[in-house]
Amino acid sequence: MNVTTFSARIAYDLIEYVREKGHAVDDLYAKLALPKAYLEREDIRIPSEKMSKIWMMAMEISGDEDIGFHMGIERSVAALRTTSLIMQSSATVLQAFEQGIKYSELIANVLSMQIGRNANDIYLDFTPRKEWRIEPAAVVKDCLNLTLISMLMSVQQITGIFHPPSILCFSYAKPKNLAEYYRVFNCAIEFGQPYNRIGFPKDLGSKPLPTSDKGLLAVLEKYANEIKQSFSNEQHFTSRTRQLIVDMMDPQPPTLDTVAEILNLSGRSLQRKIKEEENCSYRDLVDDIRKKLCARYIEDPQRTVDEISYLSGYADTASFIRAFKRWYGKTPRQVMKKPGSSPLKPL
Predict the structure, then answer these.
(1) 17, 96, 308, 316: least surrounded by Cβ within 10 Å?
(2) For 119-177, how does the pLDDT look when each residue is reduced to its tens digit (9 = 90+)?
(3) Domain ranges of the chain
(4) Do residues 131 and 241 touch, judged by C-beta distance below 8 A?
């Protein structure tokens, strides 16, 4: 099972960008909770749920809900360095795309990526993985923005020329700062689509790269594979447990013993490992996942309380309402989403 994680360097880049904007970042570094010596290492990973919390804190501290979007435009993101060098050393733009997908895990593995073609274009699709989709919508959106901005910048970097996308689609609704999107991407944009896609003219794929270097590419790939191997061997039992809970909601969550058996552990051993890694219990993880699911489903004004209760993994609506009041201090009906209302914030 491939646990969803980010490179710690992404968190470091984001925090330093907040600092560059004139904000205090001590709370962000406290949340990251890594020694300084680890901040620039490429083999250090953090669970996706921790990265989500850091991202939300960065938005709140900076007052910028598009902080990843702006960081991608304004700052050289150090976490992308090895993958970018591999892309630059590739023979063609198409090979650079293939290598970018192959080694994207060095940065994060919360998005599934694939290359597609039609009569006129070559394009890349980015799909948030299930465990990442339950994180706050603002973070998932901003992560996609950072990814597509980075791809746009990579094409300019490897070719030496700015190429406006021939296709640009986002799965989320049209944003308020639409003019900024047009200014940055300089192309037609579609929102509310069933996919997140960036594409370029098909003949660009066969374009040779001026920075192509077969020898350097071999060295970089060896290095990148060693990094991938080092963090793929990490256990991250809490992250694995979260992912299994999400995957096995049917609609109620799996039991501790069911998850422990899949991980080849006893229930007691898994409970101990979760306590060691995040100082919480299995029940706390289930509660957190239910709260996140609830926050996403309640954004849909067409959902009823009973439906949200069922989809959030509760056997009865009364139990759901009690949990909701514990999370938010109000009943679901008191805060049912209306168009344009603010996201739910826990107590």
Answers:
(1) 316
(2) 999 999 999 999 999 999 999 999 999 999 999 999 999 999 999 999 999 999 999 99
(3) 5-231, 237-334
(4) no
The pLDDT value recorded for residue 347 is 56
Q: Where are the alpha helices (DSSP H) in 233-301?
A: 237-248, 256-262, 267-278, 282-297
Structural contact between residues 14 and 146, judged by C-beta atoms closer than 8 angstroms: no
Which amino acid belongs to residue 18?
V
Please say whether the structural domain 5-231 has been given the CATH code 3.90.1520: yes
Domain 237-334 has CATH 1.10.10.60: yes
- Cα distances from 218 to residues 6, 33, 211, 215, in angstroms, run 24, 35, 14, 5
343 Cβ contact partners less than 8 Å away, ≥ 6 residues apart: 136, 137, 138, 295, 299
Number of residues in the chain: 347
pTM, whole model, 2 decimals? Answer: 0.82
Domains 5-231 and 237-334 share a fold: no
| pLDDT of 340 strictly over 70 | no
Count CA atoms closer than 13 A to 290's CA, side-chain side. 26
Cβ pair 217, 89 in contact under 8 A: yes
CA distance 232 to 220: 18
Q: 337 and 300 in contact (C-beta within 8 Å)?
A: yes
**Please, are residues 73 and 184 in contact by the beta-carbon 8 Å criterion?**
yes
Residue 95 CA: distances (Å) to CA of 86, 112, 119, 212, 311: 10, 18, 19, 10, 42
Q: What is the pLDDT of residues 60-117, one digit of tens each?
A: 999 999 999 999 999 888 788 999 999 999 999 999 999 999 999 999 999 999 999 9
Cis peptide before 251 (omega within 30 of 0): yes
Segment holding 159, helix H or strand E:
helix 137-159
What pLDDT is attached to residue 292?
92
Under 8 Å between Cβ of 120 and 195: no
Q: What is the pLDDT of residue 134?
A: 93
CA distance 338 to 252: 27
Q: What mean pLDDT value characterizes the chain?
A: 91
